[in-house]
Request: fold
Amino acid sequence: MTSAISSARLLLDPSLLTHGLDQLAALDPDVAAARARIGDPALRTRDPGFVTLLDVILGQQLSTASAAAIRARVHALVEPLTPEAYLATPPELLLKAGLSRQKLAYSRDLATATLDGRCGLDDLHLHDDEHVIEHLVRIKGIGRWTAEIYCLFSLGRPDVWPAEDLALQVGLQHLKQLDERPRGKVMRALGEAWRPWRGVGAFFLWHVYHHLTRRVAVPIEPVPDGARPPKRTASPVKRARAKPPVKRSRTKTTIKTATKKATKAKKPRAKQAASQRLRPAKAKPAKRRGARGRA
Reply:
């Protein structure tokens, strides 16, 4: 079904996100309580079109940090980032930038579909959520999650619910104090109570996940102009190993140091006992025996 979408309900402005959160908090006391503790999430939007959809594909099944690094390399490599320029980029350079061969095939098919009209991104804003999702999943490499993320971030749809998103599942588990992480049908069923603000709920659950883990959970971020891939630095573990040993204060006694001292004090006695146990016994004079083999 095709229908015009009212721009008044689109999440393309922070004030509209705030309004949606007010409505959601009125529907759900758990949201209201968590919102009072952690505040509101920031609204993140992306321009609709090829670049945003490409970025969502590049981030599929990757951590936020890994996806951001690959996007930065691709944006630096292909300038300007248009379907034509992307198809003209040698595949080996894109593989070197971090794409898997599967994502290389998906992204090139997206560029081709954008040019030959199969993708038809220009008028998607005129259609309802399900029509947009059904249209996008026809493109190779675009599943429901990718289409839902595009609807949420680029089209500002307030009731899109990416139920397969891991961070949303973890966030809802924590919010509702569930015994296990909700998935698939259970996740979709729980989201029904938040209609028509499930998209707002998604933003809030990413916010909850961030406060739980201190990791950015939002699946897509804008790539700054002139972005370059970050320089590789030593991992925190390697940096920790490289540091000189820290001098500890002698006056401060902890459980660890106290245990160490006690163990050290017992060592000489333990060694003495061990040496006594291991000392060979004095040889006794052997008894004269008869012929070999005799009992």
